[in-house]
Amino acid sequence: MPSDFTISVGGGWDVKFHPLPSYEHDDDDNYKSNTSSSSDRGIVLISIPLSTLFTNHEDAYHAFSNSRAAKIALADYTARVLSNLLPLHHEHSDNTSALTIQTMGQSKHSSNANNKGSSTKQYGRNKKKKFGTKKDTPIPYVLERSDCIVIDSNNDDEEGNIALQFYLHATMQNNNECLELKKKIINDMLSPVLHQLQVKLTSLECCTHVACVVLQNALRDMLHPPRQLDSSISTSTGNEKKTDGQQAEYLNAVAFIADDSLLPRKSGRSSLPMSSPPTVPFYSPENSDQLTRVVTVNVGSFWRRYLNDDGSVKEVGNDMCDDDTSHEKSTVTMRGMIIPRGVTLIVGGGYHGKSTLLQAITMGIYDNIPHDGRERVVSSPDAVSIRAEDGRYVNNTNVSAFISNLPSGKSINGASISSNQDTTRFSTKDASGSTSQAANVIEAIEGGASALLVDEDVSAANFMARDGRMRAMIMDEPITPLLYRVNGLFLSKEHEVSTVVVVGGVGEWLDVADAVVLMKDYVAYDGLKKAKSVSYQFSYGHVQYGGRGVVHRLPWEIQENSMKRPVSDNVDDQQMSDVDDMSQEDNDEKELSTTTISPLRRRPDIDCIMNKFKKASIHLVESGSSHLCFYDNGDCDSKQSAVSNDEDEDDGQVDMSKCSQLVGNSSEQLYGCGICVLWLIQESLSHPDDDLSCLLDCMTNVLNIGGMNMLIASLKQNQTVTNSAANEKITDLFSSNDILDLWEYVGYVYRPRRHEVFMALTRMRGMKFHILPDKPKDVNKVSQEEEVKRLEEEARKKALADLWANRRKK
Question: How many CB atoms lie within 10 A of CB 693?
């Protein structure tokens, strides 16, 4: 196998070949060299400084250098162009392929096809195999990726160090060729491709692609003030330079949908836009001061050249030097509809566009490519889709805001035990529709969600609402519906989480709405006035629900729990001890006397990690299934599975099929979630006092510094990456089995949001979470909060007393 070597192709390109170890595993599941192989595989690392790429366009260089969104969009465009220019084949005179150069995604599919039907090696209790032979279809979203990146300089004075870098996969079928001949072959193959790529990267098409993404990021930043540092999807970090006097003006909104957007997709399984006609373009409601907005967005003078006045992309000219009289402008103005913060309902008849609108909002967390139809639809980067998820795994989650007084169903020696499960630390291996959706809401809040996106069609009916007849029929219902919590959740100073709900069958939601979007014949109208009228007509006289406040508007409050378990008289002390042993595994919850309905501070349990997941590795269970598996890659006796009994046979399994904001049919983003979970598990061992939120913040920081490649490299280093190590050496990557797994089985990964990483971790069967004590609060702040709560409680009591007094008069 040849050693590393450099290839000179000219044009400012730096090309290096790095050999890969043979894709074989030894008895310890580690990679080893196969000297008998008839082919060499390697990674071709190609880079070019932006100062060289845009040597004749100084304004372009500065525009790309000063915008993180532009860098990610440039890398995305490069990957799309390469997928069209590659693969390349060089053949011998006997028509056998001697050298093949492909993108990382193409190499995955090619390798899968070549290994179809081949034997697979047993890994613990699972077989690791290569998936899929279908064509690598581009997605309509612009995501940060591992195989094509723009590397930033860590020294502000060394601007020339900002470079475009990408990885290609090379396969050499003949080991007997001399090194110089191999260099010449690679040079002859890559030179014309890199020349074509360089032309494309300085074309109008590239600039419009990037300008479209820059606009979406600027528009997304205008929705609401940032709540926390998280740039995993919105590619602006919040610390970019504001151009041309840009000021922070916020819409106080969850989402923005521009006029003339095409929201429907070609089919239920396609991400392509439906053509118009028959598609009805979206237009914001007429005469609605609450929903309709005219927005002016500052994108900078350079990117403004490639956008029309309404923010749509231009389709004229040949390159970025195209003369344009509008180049002095820096803003675009567009009209559209906002989804305001608070509780917003999307109502309408069946097949009138309710779910289509919500789906566009749901995927508005991502930047879209030009001409997608949704490229001017943006949502808060922390908006999280919520649905029922029957059968999901839940561990130590506080669902008491929605679920309480669940029966335990326990008995000892035939004696019934009157006890209830402690839902402040709820655990189950098989959640019902309502309990799973309750856990999803709480975990979304715990992960830092700013908005919940809910569709009535895929939700548990008893979790969404209960009408008066069912309240009268079932007096001890353990479920407090979401309907009663959404207003308190938004008004809570601790959370301020908005909710967007698609409703078509339960009118009680009209009682809690702050805004209503009425869809009729695919046209949006402002329905709030009518909703208030209907609510008053049907809800007059409703006063209280379970003695806990005005109906449909429960506060997000602190509740008192004694944590004592009443039992029947014929259960002795020893039997009571047995009851405690049968309860949840973490018995320290009995020490608590006061609990909150907000998420508790959790972290992965160290004992659980050491026993099950310390040396975990990851692979996809099967192609397109949205399932991951974390298996023990450590030293197990006789290579047996890490599980010890039938009850734990599913340990390490993760089902992400109901997580709708993962890019559809994209194993690359799903695998990226798995890599981030491995990093969180490793990091939690070295930071035992950090909760999940802190660990996610650390992960976000590492990803912002060096991307997915640096996160993978830090797995083997077992240390947090620093700024000085941001530009990793490829040799560091080669020493990691995780990156070799990635290159062999997936090719590359997309960077996931923190929320999908959080979902993958909390859905990992067998993972246990430890509850941390609350952080100490500022005394002055606590005193002010207590005074506010006291005044609010007095106001509620007075309002209730006045209401009853008025009724007595009648």
Answer: 18
